Amino acid sequence: MKFNTKVIHAGIEPDPTTGAIMTPIYQTSTYVQASPGDHKGYEYARTQNPTRSVLEKNLAALENGADGICFGSGLAAMDAILKMLKSGDEVISTNDLYGGSYRLIKKIFEPFGLKSKFIDMTRIEELEKAISADTKLIWIETPTNPLLSIVDIKAVCDVARARGILTCVDNTFASPYLQTPLDLGADMVLHSATKYLGGHSDLVLGAVVAKTQELADKLHFVQNASGGVCGPMDSFLVLRGIKTLHLRVQRACDNARKIAAFLEDHPKVGRVLHPGLKSHPHHELAARQMKDFGAMVSFDLKDDSIAKANTVLSGTHLFSLAESLGGVESLIGHPSSMTHASIPREDRIKNGLTDSLIRLSVGVEDVDDLIADLAAALDKV
């Protein structure tokens, strides 16, 4: 079954009771048993929910994994993965990643004894130097947030596998439409399904797809024991969103390529970061590793001024100033004060995240209207 068919049909069957073509929302906390232990596969909704189960099967099919596990948010999903480690273990991640992921590792798990390193993972030699006997997990984000660097998933996973180290790829920016990390050697793939999978800015949900059933079973255990589950309504909304994933992401990618080219030619714009640009240092890797280049674009102004960046940020009308990404509507954001404020400023600057960096989540509107909106905002600078 090809991807565009999987989003509609994989793991999804008509409701056996009514024939409803859409998966029902099983809004229940518990299930009646005929006798103790004699039930229909469901006991308590923290452990299992039929709507959630269908979503997990659908996501596993999209990512070509053994099983999916859905959580209350992307960070809840990451929390469950980190809970499989123990005090003294080490996680290595890229030095350009979502601020919430950094915060979870540094502020929540380090006090419990988890060790961490943040490196330039686009350079395999840096990864090989960073690995120690305590390294148990390599956390990959690609494209990275917000600098849109591309990490070679297969190369990193080859290094990890040779040393018996688990790997997880945060695939939120790409979605399974653009890349399937398990096929490149990863052990787990994570999504903030709040973003492209849901696609309509109306839910919060996270998911992990595991390559093996053994690993999935461990995550199901952590999920049930810790209770970080998602509700049936949000599961239903993600299932609904996935049905148009291929259409939405492709349109957003097409728009982003044109917007990146517009920005690159604009006299007031400095650095433009988008893997689809030939000027991007990882353009060729992205072309090999991804089906398309994604719908995220970041850029600096030539005059690296926060005040002038704020003029742009508050000067758009179609690009709404808001956190998050991946919805049908276009968003504009300021990483250093919004999504990445939890990362110390000296670390942000060292890694290339300037105070004036602007991040765009390009939606599915008419691209000419989006370009005109950005042009009008830049004219105010």
Task: Note the main attributes of this structure.
381 residues; alpha/beta; Aspartate Aminotransferase, domain 2; Aspartate Aminotransferase, domain 1; seven-stranded mixed β-sheet; five-stranded mixed β-sheet; 15% strand
Explain how this protein is built.
With 381 residues, this protein is an alpha/beta fold. It folds into two domains: 240 residues, Type I PLP-dependent aspartate aminotransferase-like (Major domain) (Aspartate Aminotransferase, domain 2, 3-Layer(aba) Sandwich), CATH 3.40.640.10; 135 residues, Aspartate Aminotransferase, domain 1. The chain has 14 helices and twelve strands. The chain has a seven-stranded mixed beta sheet, with helices on both faces. Strands 8-9-12-11-10 form a five-stranded mixed beta sheet. α7 links the parallel β5 and β6. α2 packs parallel to α9. The longest helix has 20 residues. It is globular and about 75 Å long. The relative contact order is 0.13. The mean pLDDT is 96.
Task: Map the helices and strands.
Layout: H1 3-9, H2 50-62, E1 67-71, H3 74-82, E2 90-94, H4 99-109, E3 115-119, H5 124-130, E4 135-141, H6 153-162, E5 166-170, H7 175-178, E6 188-192, E7 206-210, H8 213-226, H9 232-242, H10 245-264, E8 269-273, H11 283-289, E9 296-301, H12 306-313, E10 320-321, E11 331-333, H13 345-350, E12 358-361, H14 367-379
Parallel strand pairs: 2-3, 2-4, 4-5, 5-6, 10-11
Antiparallel strand pairs: 1-7, 6-7, 8-9, 9-12, 11-12
Helix pairs in contact: 2-9, 3-4
